[in-house]
Amino acid sequence: MTENTQNFPPEDDYGLDVSLVEAVLETVAQGSQQQLLGLLEPLHEADIADILEQISPSERIALLTLWGRMIDGGVLSELEEGVRDEVMRDLPDEVLAEAVRDLDTDDVVYLVEDLDDPQKEKLLEKLEHVDRMAVKRALTFDEDTAGRLMQRETVVAPQHWNVGQIIDYMRSAEDLPEVFYDVIVVDPMMHPIGDVRLGLIMGAAREVLLTELMTDNFRTFSADQDVEDVAYAFNQYHMVSAPVVDREGRLLGVITIDDAMDVLEDEVEEDMNRLAGLGDEDLTDKVWRITKARFPWLAVNLVTSILASIVIAQFTDVIEAIVALAVLLPIVASMGGNAATQTLTVAVRAIATHDLTPSNAIRIVLRETLVGLANGVVFAVIIGIVGVIWFGDPMLGVVLGLAMIANLLVAGMAGILVPITLDKLGADPALASGAFVTTVTDIVGFFAFLGLAALMLI
Amino acid sequence: MTENTQNFPPEDDYGLDVSLVEAVLETVAQGSQQQLLGLLEPLHEADIADILEQISPSERIALLTLWGRMIDGGVLSELEEGVRDEVMRDLPDEVLAEAVRDLDTDDVVYLVEDLDDPQKEKLLEKLEHVDRMAVKRALTFDEDTAGRLMQRETVVAPQHWNVGQIIDYMRSAEDLPEVFYDVIVVDPMMHPIGDVRLGLIMGAAREVLLTELMTDNFRTFSADQDVEDVAYAFNQYHMVSAPVVDREGRLLGVITIDDAMDVLEDEVEEDMNRLAGLGDEDLTDKVWRITKARFPWLAVNLVTSILASIVIAQFTDVIEAIVALAVLLPIVASMGGNAATQTLTVAVRAIATHDLTPSNAIRIVLRETLVGLANGVVFAVIIGIVGVIWFGDPMLGVVLGLAMIANLLVAGMAGILVPITLDKLGADPALASGAFVTTVTDIVGFFAFLGLAALMLI
Question: Minimal Cα distance from A22: which residue of B?
Answer without folding.
Answer: B359
